Amino acid sequence: METLETLDTLNETLETLNTTLDSVEAPTSFVENMSYLDRIMEHAFVWFSDNLGTLLFIILIGMGTILVARTVNNIMTNYHKRASTRLHIDVTTFRMFRHIMVAAVYFIGLVVTIFSIPSLRDLSVAMLSGAGLAGIVIGFAAQNTLSNIIAGIALAIFQPFRVGDRLTIMNEYGKVTDLNLRHTVIITADNRRLIIPNSVISSEAIVNWTIEDSAVIWAIDVGIGYDSDISLAKKIMIEEARKHPKVMSPHTLEYSVVKPGILKSDILANGFINPSVLHAVDPDFRERGQIKVYVTELGEFAINLRVHMWFKDRSDAYGAGCEIREAIKMRFDQEGIEIPYPYRTIVYKKDLEKPSRNPAQPEEIKVEYAPGTKLTSTGNEKGI
Fold first, then answer.
1. Shared domain check, 160 and 120
2. Are residue 228 and residue 252 in the same domain, yes or no?
3. End of a domain among 134, 150, 185?
4. Considering only CA atoms, which of 34, 155, 51 is closest in space to residue 95?
5. What pLDDT was estimated at residue 282?
6. Is 146 found in the same domain as 115?
């Protein structure tokens, strides 16, 4: 009996607990959050179901745009390789034209993608209707990009330098390897890639070592002692410079070859009339190959000499100049010509001898006060 009563009591307790749990409701915020997420998922599923064709079309357009752009780039690159064997195609203009064509393909793909989406199409139409304000906003937002593009096109048209030219810019010397719509790539002498925005390089002062005439006068400075023979030193410097194989021999040049434009062919031997690829050399620099030595300065401890040599290209000048400088030093040592350097003597203040002071005794100083404002010193003291 007691067991039955205990079971009845447990059953009543469980029923009471179930009733209490049933009466407790879930938090309102949790239910609302779950319902909100369900609505989002439902709307997303419905949108993807309704716009599946549009999404597939956008993906195909994007993949097609990339494929067409790469195909155009490869075709133009291969054409340049084939045509360069029989035509002197300007690399700078060709590369800029290639970059513009590839950018045009991407732009067309972007326009097609925008007009394939109704909401973006309506937005683009609204922006075109207010083109003045939109142009101002876009101009300010893409000011740097647009300036680089415009500067790149200007550099390709006016050609202050070309791909392959050797420049000195921003205290860097290197070779131009690429010119695109945004920047110019220069490989430096120590194999670094210097990437300069077109808007920056168009406003910088450029030293072009290659344009029109690649020959260059290179200078080497050497100082000799005041007791050395200047004539002998000049003779040695000329002889050592003339021995180097990369130093130009004496000759006269009237014209230099200039790279023609993108559609100009080379000089042919079949009688056709071809555009000229020659450029007249400046009269002051027609005589080439001479080696001259000048006394540039009578310095504090040396007579400074400077030798001028001709090289056919700036890329040969630096290395050859270092070798000639070494040869001059070795020859000077053999001939007994001194290359001096300054001597400095350091004297510390504590090592200086203090001068002996013998101040005059007060009684030995006699001053006479003359009438007026004059002061005179005499051997006798007198009153006023």
1. no
2. yes
3. 134
4. 155
5. 80
6. no
Give 17's contacts (C-beta < 8 A, 6+ positions apart): none
The span from the CA of 65 to the CA of 74, in Å, is 14
Q: What are the b/e assignments for 313-326, b being 16+ CB within 10 Å?
A: ebbbbeebbeebbe
Residue where a domain stops, chosen among 113, 134, 155: 134
Q: What is the pLDDT of residue 322?
A: 94
In terms of domains, do 232 and 316 share one? yes
Q: In CATH, what number is assigned to the domain containing residue 226?
A: 3.30.70.100
CA dist 85 → 11, 20, 176, 214, 250 (Å): 101, 94, 21, 22, 33
- CA distances (Å), origin 115, targets 31, 47, 55, 101, 137: 41, 18, 13, 21, 21
Structure tokens at 95: 């590369």
Q: Are 210 and 176 in contact (CB under 8 A)?
A: no
Are 336 and 227 in contact, with CB atoms under 8 Å apart? no
Residue 363: predicted pLDDT: 52
Which tokens belong to 136? 């101002």
Whether 228 and 337 have beta carbons less than 8 Å apart is answered as: yes
From the first residue on, what is the mean pLDDT of each consecutive set of 10 residues in the chain (384 residues)?
52 59 50 62 68 74 82 77 61 74 82 71 60 58 78 85 88 89 89 91 88 88 92 94 92 70 41 54 85 92 93 90 94 92 77 60 52 46 42
The pLDDT score that the predictor gives to residue 374 is 45
Q: Which amino acid is at 209?
A: W
- Establish if 361 belongs to a structural domain: no
| 231 and 295 fall within a common domain | yes
Number of residues in the chain:
384
> What's the confidence (pLDDT) of residue 234?
95
